Amino acid sequence: MKNITDSFLSLGHWPFAGSFGFNTDILATNLINLGVVIGVLIFFGKGVLADLLDNRKQRILNTIRNSEELRERAIEQLERARARLRKVETEADQFRVNGYSEIEREKLNLINSTYKTLEQLENYKNETIQFEQQRAINQVRQRVFQQALQGALGTLNSCLNNEVHLRTINANIGMFGTMKEITD
């Protein structure tokens, strides 16, 4: 092992002229080495590199195609969504208009119903007033009649004495007797 290591260490000390050896000049050897490596890569790697680039190109094209298909589907979905949105907005406007007209109709119905109810209450009030007036008139008539009857009875009692009373009774009995004879 020591001989091999010594041989590599001593390579840098070989003379340049006339003998075979390694060039240790980094700048000169790098260009040659790069040229050789690039030549070998181009010669042997041209097919592999072309295949890799073709595969990459196909993947990129497939990705673009897939993206285009996804874009077209997204555009179709967007158009359908816009159509649904327009339809829903139209329906919402119809509901709004119908709602407003329904509210107006209900408002008019409520106003008419309230007017009819007020009219009925007014009629009930008027009927109640007329009933109460008639009842008051009847009570007044009844009191007047009672007072007149009491006054008449008082006058009769004060004017009638026993003799006038007996004559009135006899006259009435006579009238009934005559009426009975006529009817028989």
Task: Describe it.
This protein is 89% helix and 0% strand. With 184 residues, it is mostly helical. It has a domain of 109 residues. The longest helix is centred in the middle third of the chain and has 134 residues. The N terminus is likely disordered.
What kind of sheet is the major sheet? none
Number of helices: 3
Structural class: mainly alpha
Number of strands: 0
Termini gap: 185 Å
Which whole number gives the mean pLDDT?
82
In N-to-C order, the SSE pattern is HHH
Which stretches are low in confidence, meaning pLDDT under 50 for 5 or more residues running? 3-16
Q: Name the helicity range.
A: over 70%
Q: Any idea what the shape is?
A: rod-shaped
Strand content: under 5%
Cα Rg:
68 Å
Give a quick summary of the entry.
The protein has about 180 residues and is mostly helical.
Topology readout:
Elements: H1 2-9, H2 26-159, H3 162-183
Provide key terms for this protein.
184 residues, 0% strand, disordered N terminus, mainly alpha
